[in-house]
Records
---
Amino acid sequence: MALTPIRPHGPVGGGRDLPVPGDGVRLAATRWAGTGPPVVLLHGLASTRRFWNLVVPGLAGLPVVAWDQRGHGDSDAPPTGYDTASVVSDVATALDSLGISRAVVVGHSWGATIALAFAASHPERTLAAVAVDGGVSTPSTRWSRDEAQVALAPPQFAVAPEQLIELIAQGPLAPWWSPDVEEAILPIFGVAADGAARARLDLAHHLEIVDALWDYDPVATMAAITVPTWIVVAQPLTVPDDPAGRAWREDKQTGIELATSTLARPRVVILGGAVHDVPLQWPAAIAGLIRSAVDEIREAGAGG
């Protein structure tokens, strides 16, 4: 079903939209000019590159690039290729096309998994990795493959755009809601010919990515990473004391322990009071952590 963006808008902060090649796909990207170590921003599952809108101003002066990953946003949606290796290959191909030999690779949620997998498989191209609330665990610790397909399936809806905005504004980001947050989230959705808003990521592709996550091995991945790796953990102050809440807390703690014991150069930051979409909640904090990774590279004399 063809969907058009609810409210199209250009890049923030003087960025330039451009197409870049992935591994056999065309990716819609935005690039910001600057000097120093390049920074690559990878969004999470069912999101788009505009998710980083509020973080980018805090990276002003650095060379930054973000793109819609395959199947997402304005990028191509091929029928196959949603496994982790294919998406990591997209990253390498896109960087080649942009003339970027090495970069600080930043990812949020599923994007953090891709960032860590890229750092593990392309150590010569990774200056540092920043994993924002993702990448250190796998659904296989909590579900069977079939259970994960059900538990992690996205909600299916078709509502008027105004109703969609109202529903999202009342969600976890409600205390931080603003027009800028709205503009960063709306590109995730599109409007069909019937006038209803739906998620732009196709359900089948969403579930293929979930299936690939089930196979992801965070221990082997982190063990292969040699560069400084920032693990940023969003930790709400209150979690329901029920089976789901306890499993969530256990997953978080296990991920932190795995990161500190497995990574060669871990930097673990726990953000108490943060929601999962912390780049929209506290963008200045996330930009500051990315700049810390860049500063560490500069102090070490590494290039970009």
---
Amino acid sequence: MDTLIVLLRIAAVLHLGLLAAGLMMPKVVGMRAHLGRMPPFIEQLFWTYYAFIGLCLIGFSAITFVFADALASGSGLARAVSTFLAVFWTMRLGAALWVFDVGPYLTTPARAWGYRGLNLAFACLPIVYGLAAAQPAWLR
């Protein structure tokens, strides 16, 4: 279980990395200019959703870090939370790979590498939470 707890704590830190990347995104993609052409309600709605996503990342990180031992315990609630997070991050990885066209924004090597790093985080999170949900015998 110690290995799983360490992996969960790394996942908690990855969430904060995603938060940091998300905070840089408005400037990188010129989001204010794009949203400025939308009706005020749509712009407000977007920023509200954006803030809630940030809040979720902080919450996922805090819960995972503080309760890593509980998530690694294999209890019903731990498996349910871990399953939810594994599915959530699997779907987010799918959106990154097959829905979003970020090509126009990957204008520098740093942005391209940053995007690869984000996708790596999106790939690692479902693996860690999947392990916490499945509780494979080889991990114990």
---
Amino acid sequence: MNLARRLAETAGRHTNKPAIIFEQVVTTYGELDKQIDRYASLLASLDLEPGDRVALQLPKCMEFILLEQAVLSVGGIVIPLNTDYRPEEITYFLSDSGARLLFTDLERFLRARGEIAKLQGIKTVLVDSEVAEEAVSLAALLEKAPRSDQRRYPAQRDDTAVICYTSGTTGKPKGAMLTHDNLISNMTALHEAWGWTDRDILLHVLPLFHVHGLFVALHGGLNAGATIVMHEKFDPLRTWQSLELYRCTILMGVPTMYQRLMAQWAEMQKKPDLTSMRLFISGSAPLLETQFLRFEQATGFRILERYGMTETGMLSSNTLEAAGRQAKSVGFPLPGVEVRVVSGAGEDVTPGEVGEVWVRGANVFKGYWGMPEKTQESFDRGWFKTGDLGYRDPSDNARLYLVGRAKELIITGGYNVYPKEVENVLEGHGAVREAAVIGLPDEDFGERVVAVVVTKETSADVSAQSLIDFSKVRLAGYKCPKQVFFADELPRNAMGKLQKNRLVEHYGKS
């Protein structure tokens, strides 16, 4: 039950088959396995012990993949870090985790070297050919590393494999500890749910530092013995071209990517041949119903939306059969995953009522690094409290829908307002591309409902009042926005997830 051993065993069954085609450079499963062995030898030469933490802040590259698997194979713990993190953030993660090694590139090291220099007991390794002071070269270490196989796979199922830092709305980021069993169980559930086979060809256009790109896409593809065509960066035109060129079968993306793919599709005189494709998958942020419908109308494919989070991996998915996929729904619990929707008192709500989503299963993380109190707060009688609000449709086999975050719930005049419900109405207006609904302090009502709207390019004349009037026809008065602001775009993180805290900060001052 060691993830690296599991993937190495798959590699042994597909030795001569292309595993990864990174920017047109082909690496077979046999070659990948040998390179991981080499990197494991490098780590052993640095006296890395089981349980030691290794941070990776790297752009998308083969070195990231090789290091991640090598660290796991010698019993270390991987800390994947967003390439956009600032020096102050990086030093917090390194200090909090007690990382022994940081693998990064010259650009990011030079940006953070002053902060990193203040830390004790950490060695920095650069993947570039150029080397700076206070750091060593990956190439030089590889030259000195012993050639013998150093992979002993000492970590077992309940040992931590990865620490992923989550950016909460309040307080310091928390390091979610994911075990080998968490990762393997989730990978296995998705293998079954999505019908992965060694005949699949995945086009990988996601970052590697995130759960979506690393665990769902990369690990999922390698576990299946599939071929992974990997682009360093997402480009909509090149994505369409590669799907046809490589006869791909699966694409995973975030809603922002699908928005840009559709914009590119409209400009293409010759549409790509998608006859090899079987799955377009979306996650990391809610997919708008308009995106779902537009994509199906244009391509003939229904996007498969799924639901997950850092602490749990994937929780639910729409069905493999296209007819069973519904817009705005995140589908049904994955094999081995239990889901409840509960009230504030922790009791199951009546089916169809909104409550907080709780989850239990082998996929659920074992806690937050160095924060036992936060861990205890996050669980109730063995169930992890996701903080997401949702309901299960009693007329459709308890299909799960999400309506927002519990912390985003707006209470105005004593009434509960779920932002997603209001956003869905506003996005049904012909002039609106997307909307975000937030609650701002109000002397009379406690909170007032406020909408931030991005309009379509052809709809510049729509007014705030017209949108308020539009919502009044469709919603109870207390749910309707009291103010509407217009923006060129909504703030999102690297994976396209909407950052409503930034909207609250900005418009709360207005």
---
Amino acid sequence: MTTRVDDDVIVYGDIGQSLVFIPKTRAIKLAAIHAALWGSKTWGELHARMPEGEYERVLDMTGDDRMAFAEFLEQERKDRPALTAEEARIEYRALELELRDPEPDGPFEAGNVGPISDGDYPDWPAQEMLDWVPPLIQREYGRRGFSNLNGDLLELPSARTGEIVAALQAHGYQCERGDDLVRRASGYGGGNDRALDESR
């Protein structure tokens, strides 16, 4: 069952002879996420660049057993009361990332975070179209494709761009061409194109 998206403005573009349509506000957010993930060198930079709430999602992907520094210090001082904060910080930083919060100046590599390297995050616009593009349009113009790792997606042929745009407009959507934004929102153009192609 599909659900109408709140955003009436849809941006669309061509990716590999297949059209991708994305609600514009969603496209802007996804493009910002991809830019932050693939353009940040440290966790602090990632935190500063990510849209609200998305940094926390990435943190959650690193593991459930993470401990904040204050908690680590408190636990360690139970057995070693003379432990200084500086000594504890050195020990804390030596822990695996799955066990601690990343330090702001700690190196960040998107490919080292499982769900990102697997292509499960951020969300995939070609797959999201299955949830909101009206079923009549999906049946008339599209076909359900399949990727090896990430499941089903909607493929819409570029050759029928005018017809598909007209059909979406008939459903009350305003369509704007935006190939660059659609590519960036889909994860292409930010230095991760090869990783995405391999994961999908």
